[in-house]
Amino acid sequence: MNRIIKFALVLLSTLGLILGTASTSFSKVEGDKIILGAAVSLTGKYSSNGVHTQNGYNMAVDRINSMGGVKVGGKTYKFDIIYYDDESNPKRAAQLAERLINQDGVEFMLGPYSSGLTKAMAPVTEKYGVPMVEANGASRSLFTKGYKYLFAVLAPANLYLDVAIRTAVELNGGKGVKIAQAFEQDAFSQDVRLGILDAAKETGSEIIIDDKLPKELNDMAATLAKVKATKPDVLVVSGHTKGALTAIRQIAEMKVDVPMLAMTHCDAAKLSKQHGKNAQYALCASQWHKTLTYKDKWFKDGMTYDKDFTKMFGYAPPYQAAESSAALLVFKDAFERANSFDQKKVRDALAATDMQTFYGNIKFAPGGQNVSKPMVLFQVICDSSGKCENKVVAPLKWASAKLIHPIPKWSER
């Protein structure tokens, strides 16, 4: 019986390899459909942002398809996407990239969520010459590998929170400030950290706490105890959605006073919804905000995108959704300028991208990073009734609201 089972498994494995190899000849432009591949985190620690990513992709697919689709070679095509769950696991993401290309025959790819998973997939898409437009991998090391088929619509990670340090220094009369920081040990957060180190050096600021967040992002009490003891001017935290929620919860529980709190991913975390007025005054690094004035013909502007996305999915779009939608606009533009589905021609068209979308300006440097769109900071502001809004407060010259600084002490709230 064991021999029979072993023989069956070998036979199935062999057939899988044959079918997998044969399917690479299938064009993933089938009939009137351009079929893109995407592995996103629908389970695991990045699942909330993985859902935002998928919703952003789906929003753009629906909009582009309903507005005439993609015109190539005198014909009109519509987008479709094959999805797999990468389980927030880099090894799984790489395996799924291989599957999408070698078994599903995908010739064009959308990126996963997070820098770590994008790092896992990029060598695979590069090996096969598959253009990948990604929206959620900001690690600057992605853009120093010499990849020719990777393009990112978002600003690189090292720029996420340097604007917070520079704003604090500006408010301090140009003098350096004392910085406390705590980071997840993933590729993205470590690049955010490098950006803070650069900003500190350039502004004459001093880093007095430089901590690692625990792997599960569920406790930063040790760091916050140090903050209470050393009284820094700025506390910087980068731990994706879970890290942001943990920070706000424990800062409130421990009544930690700090003049400025700046974090990544607190837009996606919906801080005020989870923690009410305890989230007030937090500064959130954002790739996009609905009040910015960028425009395009598909989504019109940020306010319109916000309204339409909320109607479709039942919640306001975080920037992870907006940038994911922008990735589809970039692919549409590149296909039409290439007037071809030849991968090298599409790759060259992507490299020559220079466009404005509702999400921002997009123009790629030779490394594939977007060099045309700055980061912004918004602040969580709550009124007397407890209703909270996110308002753009930095860079100061582009702010639509006044930054509240320093943050009022807990005893004064």
What does the model show?
The chain is an alpha/beta fold and 413 residues long. It folds into 2 domains: 24-154 and 292-363, Rossmann fold, CATH 3.40.50; 159-286 and 383-412, Rossmann fold, CATH 3.40.50. Helices cover 41% and strands 21% of the residues. The protein is built from 13 helices and 18 strands. Helix 2 crosses helix 12 (319-338) and helix 3 runs parallel beside helix 4 (115-127). The chain is globular. Residues 1-27 have low confidence and may be disordered.
List keywords for this structure.
Rossmann fold; 4-stranded mixed β-sheet; single chain; alpha/beta; globular; 13 helices; 413 residues; 2 domains; 21% strand
Strands of the widest sheet, in order across it, are 9-8-10-11-12-17-18
CATH class of the largest domain: Alpha Beta
Overall pLDDT confidence: 91
User: What fraction, in percent, of the residue positions are helical?
Assistant: 40-55%
Write down the CATH topology of the largest domain: Rossmann fold
Query: Helix tally?
Result: 13
What is the CA-based Rg, rounded? Answer: 22 Å
Number of strands: 18
Q: What does the largest sheet look like?
A: 7 strands, mixed
Poorly predicted regions are: 1-27
Cα(first) to Cα(last) distance is 73 Å
| 3D shape | globular
Count of domains: 2
CATH architecture of the largest domain: 3-Layer(aba) Sandwich
Kindly name the structural category.
Answer: alpha/beta
Strand residue percentage: 15-25%
CATH superfamily of the largest domain: Response regulator
> Quaternary state, please?
single chain
